[in-house]
Structures are given as C-alpha cells and as structure tokens.
Amino acid sequence: MTPSASRIPTQDRYRGALVGLALGDALGAPREGGPLERLLWRWLGFTPGGLHRFTDDTQMSVDLALSLIRHGGVDQDDLAARFADSYRWDRGYGPGAAKVLKQIRAGRAWQDACLSVYPAGSFGNGGAMRSPVIGLFFHSRPDELLRAAPLASQVTHAHPLAVEGATLVAGATAAALDGPDGSQLLEQASRFCASPAFSTRLDKARHWLQTGQPISPQVLRSELDMGITATTSCVTSLYLAARFLDRSIDALIGFASDAGGDVDTVCAMAGALWGARNGFAALPGHLVARLEGAARLADIGDQLHAKAHAAAAAALR
Ligand code: R7I
Ligand code: MG
Ligand code: MG
Description:
Elements: H1 11-28, H2 35-44, H3 56-71, H4 76-86, H5 95-105, H6 110-113, H7 132-137, H8 142-154, H9 160-176, H10 182-189, H11 196-211, H12 217-223, H13 234-244, H14 249-259, H15 263-278, H16 285-288, H17 294-316
Helix pairs in contact: 1-14, 1-15, 1-17, 3-4, 3-17, 4-5, 8-9, 9-10, 9-15, 10-11, 10-13, 11-13, 12-14, 13-14, 13-15, 14-15
The structure holds inosine diphosphate ribose and magnesium ion (2 copies).
C-alpha cells in the first residue's frame, strides 16, 4: 500500500480513540472481576476530585504513545523504562506484569525480566490493551505496523499469542480510523491474525454480526470469553466494537459489564475502536468531563495525529 498524507484520518478520530480507550477502561474497571475486585475498585476507582480513574490499560497506552512521539518508532529500552517508571500498584496491573515491571525498575534488563514469570513470556492481554496506539501511529504504514506491534508487546508480553493479539488490535484500530461499518471492521481485522484461537473466534463474531443474531452478554462470555489473556479478550473487544459502532459507547460498556470478566480491558480495546471510528465529538460529554486526565489524553491524541501525518507526508517526498 502506498502511504498518502491525505489518507491520515482527522485529529478528532485520533482524540476519540485515546479518550475512548480511557473511558472504556475507567468505566469498565468497577465492573471487572469478582466481588472483592469490584469492592476494591469502588475505593480506588475515583480521584480525590471525584473523577473516574483509569487503570494500567490507559497508563501503558500513554507510556507507549509518549515513547513513539519522542523516538518516532518503537524504542524498546525507552518503553521498558517508561512502563517501569509509571508502575503503581493501585492502577490494577496484571500480577505477572507487576512483577516484571518491579524487576525492571530494580535494574534488571527487560529482556530477562519479561521471561522471568512465564518462560515463554506472558500471554496476558497487557500487550494488546495498549496496542491501539500502534494502530494510530502507523495508520498509513501497514508494513511498519506489522513490525512495530510485536516490538511494543515483547517488552512485557513476549509470548507469540500476546504478540498476535497486539498485532490484531493494532491492525483493527488502523482499520477503524478509516470509518468502516461493523462487518468491514471485522473483515479488515481478519487479515491480522492466523492462529485458530483468534481466527475461530473471529469467524464466529463475523457470523453473528452478518446474521444479526441477538447474542446475549452471557452467550458472548461463554462463546468468545471475557478473559485476562489475549486470546480470550481481543476478539470479544472487536465484536463489541463492531456491534455497537452505530450505537452509543455507553451501550457498549453496559453490555460488556453485564457479561462480566475483564471488563476494563475489553472496554478499553473496544472503546478505542469505537472512538477511532466515531471520533471524540461523538463521545458523551458528561462522561468525558468526569474522566481522569481527559484533556491530556486528547492532547496526546493530537500529537499522535501530527506525527502520523508528518511521517506519511515524508514518505511521499
Ligand atoms: O497481561 P497482563 O498485563 O494483565 C493485564 C490485565 C488487564 O485485565 C489489566 O486491566 C489488568 O487487570 O491485568 O498481566 P499478566 O500477569 O502478564 O497476564 C495476565 C494473566 O494471564 C496472568 O496473571 C495469568 O493468569 C495469565 N497468563 C498465563 N498463565 C499461564 N501461563 C499469562 N501468561 C501465562 C502463561 O504463560
Ligand atoms: Mg486494567
Ligand atoms: Mg483488565
């Protein structure tokens, strides 16, 4: 595909993707997991000023975005340092990721730390949940996107399934920026995964969407999953985004909350896709007004847009 500056979508879509990700994360977090986690997040889920706090999903997306903006591509050493520096227990990081980040902060090389908890690296969804940022940055550079998504995942999530989930979510986000309908979004996304754990779920999701089946939250959870791993959350997010593209993001988050499980992460990835397609202006203002760091996130979206635009223009010269 030839890069083209004119193909870069509007700034509003970039803002929408980042703020949509954070909104899904922050509003999904109190609905995540079992009764104990929900209770804990009632306490941790608000800033002192009463805003909805985001979790590790958004924090790692911000870290990745700032690193890409600073370096013009994936610099794994810088990324590892930023992830480790931002780590706070009360952002709700995954258990393995927390251990890896604490080791990096203590001075261990990320290449060793990321294989210290699980020998082949984690297959948790932590690589995919920040990957919408890769889709934004490399929107008009698909070959670079395919190289960058694995590099950005591997720093903490080196397992091939985590890497594939990250690539799938990055590719889907790039596709969402072009304004597809739900079926087109899933069709475009299908080019970014090959393993049956993803492709079988994606085939099912595409069938549900095409036939308009009234899938309940319970069926969604039992058939596609709402889990903490890449294979049990990425396609679920894609399906939800595709199904709710022409409805409100509140309806999407409400549906995911009824399904339960890893609600913050599924809503973060689906929220990013929804926002990339529909733009910041389509997000409900009253919810954005109560989101931690919304103005900063919008600004980072603007910076990503400017960088993506400049890179595409440079490629044309
Ligand atoms: O993937 P990760 O960063 O977790 C992200 C999740 C999101 O829901 C966030 O919102 C936050 O709540 O946490 O954290 P990891 O600990 O690397 O992976 C998540 C989980 O996947 C682990 O705690 C394990 O349960 C499982 N897992 C594995 N289990 C067995 N063998 C990941 N990799 C393996 C493995 O190799
Ligand atoms: Mg989280
Ligand atoms: Mg989560």
